[in-house]
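Apologies for my clumsy wording, but are you able to produce some protein sequence, whichever is easiest, and the tokens describing how it folds?
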Amino acid sequence: MKPSLQHASILAALFCISAAPAVAAEKIGAGKTAQAAKSRVAIQVNEESVKKWNEVLVNIRNIQAELGPKNVAVALVAIGPGLGMLTAESLAANGVQDALAAGVEFVACGNTMKALKIPREDLIEGVKVSAAGYVELMRRQQAGWVYLRP
């Protein structure tokens, strides 16, 4: 290889190497925006703990703050002892109402409601009911939702 051709090849290789991080960073940034527009998170709550409920509500606010509330769908599914979070008498009721106003979907397990004899009227206004909470979570996962159990 002639020295001038070798020199040109080395310069071209160096240019490609130096440009790669910038191109990769640009693609990652673009991916973040595209990914954010498609983000869906299903959160399970199955504990009777006001502390846990409030932590979950903080986590939801953090998710929405990071991705933007219009860029992420958040659904919380309450099962078993976690159903207490979604009752009108819950110590987390104000936080749930604020999250509902911010576009968060809350779903109560119908099986738990039957077992604990909790009528729909006892739930916070705006809470939806699914026949089976675990099936609700399973279907959302099958549809591409990210599953979180804090």
Summary: Helices lie at 3-37, 50-67, 93-101, 110-116, 133-142. Residues 3-37 form the longest helix (35 residues).
